[in-house]
């Protein structure tokens, strides 16, 4: 829905010896307006749509000022005006006819021939009309009258008589400079593209000879927008007495969106944000009806009406644990059985990034007696950041709700995988590399790099259907290294799981950051370059799940040495082939450490304390902000208790 507004604007132009000036309407006596100053009353109707500029006051015009009619077809598109001079507006005579800061005479016009003044002046310019323009509106500075043409057809007159217009035709208005507009031009079937705009300006029959011409032209394009649509309704809230309740709504539509919350059918004062926080609730507020209207220039949408339930304080269910089962699946546990209808309502949960106002809703909520499984809406929780789950309105079997805005730290699931065909650096030189080659900072710059899998002497059947890289013969072990970047790993990361799926001919030892994490078909004694594998088995893939404790934030190096059973090996085998292929997957759970903000009151002061030097304190007059930084000392802030409430929060730098 579009709106159309009409304004009546009174503008008075008073001519003085110093030029034209604008006087406020209230300083002019009504009976003198038309007689003394030639005042112009503008009725301005703002057309539905936005505007695009087509011609400025200072636009370029070609003009004819020779004291005659240039030609009968001077206004036609095919008229040759190449011999006419070209200058910027405004045009006029005398030069100081206009001296306001809003308008400035750029091109003076001649008075006439000797003592005989010119009767008319002629102007032409090219305009380009965009394809989406619906209408044209013009503003004009004219002294005394004018006729307007587009592509040779007359589209309007200002202070000119009816009938044919000749060079000697006089304007009936013998007044000072007049500003007209905005005026809608009558341009039926005007096609997009280039057009010729022509104007002839005429003098009045007066002993005072002066002339002014200037024009501004804009085109109207349609508004493009969308009326509001509520995408997430507010939910009913249950709070303990003396606690505020917070309602929220999500809506889409062309900005800006305007919100207005109401309680019991009456607009709530100052409740004009996406969220609405009540004052501390009382038992008398139990059953209060709440709704919100969202509007913009294109329409209005109303939410469902929800209710506020206020109960006396009591022990409700508590959040006791949380886990990440996959990158987009999370599970939280309560200390008791919870009611399915309240625990499976997605409006009762949201993820909140610690230290920010960044929220993520939930979906696919699944109830499981005393635990609930859910997924974030639209986006994953970002590894390397701290999140909590905020829970409201979940009740136990006695219908007692959880404490409002209960929170629990949420682990963030991070997966880093590499396929079998990933690139590895390898060495088959036969050199004795000792133990240094398995360390993180070892320089493997002279090693060869290739894509897996790798083989020597024969291609295993399991590798025949995939890309593989041949290895040369080696007098001893084959060595492989690969670096993994776990920059998003937090210092408080837990549950690091390393999944390996490997194909080895014949045996191998695996190292992570220099420490051995796995042996496969290798003897228990210290491994050297010429050590032999214990067996020569059939080809096959083997899956292994490990829980290493030496994973670090940043670069981690996985190193593998592959050994052959070889001639004279423990099994007496007679093979001399080798193969190595492996897929790798790191799974890490980041468990955030959530700071606690403690408040102790004494007399008329409140002392706020918290732990963790990485957090800073912010304060705001209302929950929606604006939030400002608070100067503190050593994790403590003391403030006076006044009549005006203040909100405090901890944020990360």
Layout of strands and helices, then pairs:
Elements: E1 6-16, E2 19-23, H1 30-37, E3 40-45, E4 50-55, E5 60-64, E6 86-88, E7 91-93, E8 107-108, E9 112-113, E10 116-117, E11 120-129, E12 135-143, E13 145-150, E14 153-158, E15 178-184, E16 193-202, E17 211-221, E18 229-232, E19 237-240, E20 246-248, E21 250-252, E22 258-263, E23 266-267, E24 275-277, E25 288-296, E26 299-302, E27 306-311, E28 319-326, E29 329-334, H2 340-343, E30 349-353, E31 359-360, E32 362-368, E33 371-376, E34 387-391, E35 406-410, E36 412-418, E37 423-427, E38 448-451, E39 454-456, E40 469-470, E41 478-486, E42 493-505, E43 507-512, E44 515-520, E45 542-546, E46 554-563, E47 578-590, E48 598-602, E49 605-609, E50 616-620, E51 628-629, E52 636-640, E53 647-651
Parallel strand pairs: 7-8, 19-27, 39-40
Antiparallel strand pairs: 1-2, 1-3, 4-17, 5-6, 5-11, 7-17, 9-10, 11-16, 12-15, 12-17, 13-14, 13-16, 18-21, 20-24, 22-23, 22-25, 25-26, 25-27, 28-29, 29-33, 30-31, 30-34, 32-33, 34-35, 36-47, 37-38, 37-41, 39-47, 41-46, 42-45, 42-47, 43-44, 43-46, 48-49, 49-52, 50-51, 50-53
């Amino acid at each position: 829905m579009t709106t159309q507004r009409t304004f009546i604007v009174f503008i008075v132009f008073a001519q003085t010896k110093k030029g034209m000036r604008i006087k406020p309407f209230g300083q002019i006596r009504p009976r003198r307006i038309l007689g003394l100053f030639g005042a112009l009353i503008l009725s301005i109707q703002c057309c539905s749509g936005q505007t695009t500029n087509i011609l400025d006051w200072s636009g370029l015009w070609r003009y004819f000022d020779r004291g005659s009619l240039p030609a009968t077809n001077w206004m036609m598109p095919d008229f040759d005006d190449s011999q006419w001079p070209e200058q910027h507006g405004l045009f006029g005579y005398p030069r100081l006819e206009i001296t306001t800061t809003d308008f400035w005479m750029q091109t003076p016009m001649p008075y006439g021939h000797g003592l005989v003044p010119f009767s008319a002046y002629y102007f032409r310019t090219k305009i380009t009309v965009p394809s989406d323009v619906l209408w044209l509106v013009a503003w004009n500075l004219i002294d005394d009258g004018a006729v307007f043409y587009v592509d040779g057809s007359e589209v309007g007159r200002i202070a000119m008589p009816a009938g044919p217009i000749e060079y000697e035709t006089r304007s009936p208005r013998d007044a000072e400079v007049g500003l007209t507009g905005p005026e809608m031009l009558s341009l039926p079937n005007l096609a997009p593209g280039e057009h010729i705009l022509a104007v002839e300006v005429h003098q009045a029959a007066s002993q005072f000879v002066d002339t002014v011409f200037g024009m501004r032209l804009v085109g109207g394009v349609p508004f493009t927008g969308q009326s509001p649509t509520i995408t997430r309704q507010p939910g009913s809230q249950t709070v303990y007495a003396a606690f505020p309740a917070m309602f929220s709504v999500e809506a889409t539509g062309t900005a800006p969106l305007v919100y207005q919350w109401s309680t019991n059918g009456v607009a709530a004062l100052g409740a004009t944000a996406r969220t609405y926080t009540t004052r501390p609730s009382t038992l008398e507020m139990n059953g209060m009806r709440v709704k919100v209207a969202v509007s913009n220039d294109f329409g209005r949408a109303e939410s469902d009406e929800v209710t506020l339930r206020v109960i006396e304080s009591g022990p409700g269910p508590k959040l006791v644990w949380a886990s990440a089962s996959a990158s987009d699946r999370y599970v939280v546990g309560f200390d008791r059985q919870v009611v399915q209808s309240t625990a499976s309502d997605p409006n009762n949960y949201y993820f909140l990034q610690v230290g920010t106002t960044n929220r993520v809703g939930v979906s696919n909520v699944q109830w499981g007696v005393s635990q609930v499984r859910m997924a974030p809406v639209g986006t994953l929780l970002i590894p390397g950041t701290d999140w909590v789950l905020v829970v409201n309105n979940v009740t136990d079997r006695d219908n007692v709700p959880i404490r409002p805005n209960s929170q629990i730290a949420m682990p963030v699931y991070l997966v880093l995988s590499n396929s079998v065909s990933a690139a590895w650096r390898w060495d088959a030189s036969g050199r004795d590399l000792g133990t240094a080659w398995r360390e993180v900072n070892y320089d493997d710059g002279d090693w060869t790099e290739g894509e897996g899998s790798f083989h020597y002497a024969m291609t295993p059947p399991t590798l025949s259907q995939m890309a593989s890289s041949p290895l040369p013969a080696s007098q001893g072990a084959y060595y492989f290294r690969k670096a993994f970047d776990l920059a998003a790993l937090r210092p408080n990361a837990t549950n690091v799981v390393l999944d390996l799926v490997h194909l080895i001919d014949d045996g191998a030892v695996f190292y992570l950051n220099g420490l051995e994490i796995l042996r496969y078909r290798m003897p228990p004694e210290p491994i050297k370059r010429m050590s032999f594998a214990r067996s020569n088995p059939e080809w096959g893939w083997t899956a292994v799940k490990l829980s290493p404790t030496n994973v670090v934030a940043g670069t981690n190096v996985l190193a593998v040495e592959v050994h052959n059973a070889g001639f004279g090996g423990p099994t007496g085998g007679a093979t001399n082939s080798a193969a190595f292929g492996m897929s790798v997957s790191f799974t890490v759970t980041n468990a955030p450490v959530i700071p606690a903000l403690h408040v102790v009151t004494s007399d008329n002061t409140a002392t706020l304390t918290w732990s963790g030097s990485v957090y800073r304190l912010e304060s705001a007059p209302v929950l929606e902000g604006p939030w400002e930084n608070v100067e503190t000392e050593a994790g403590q802030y003391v403030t006076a208790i006044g009549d005006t409430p203040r909100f405090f929060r901890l944020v990360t730098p």
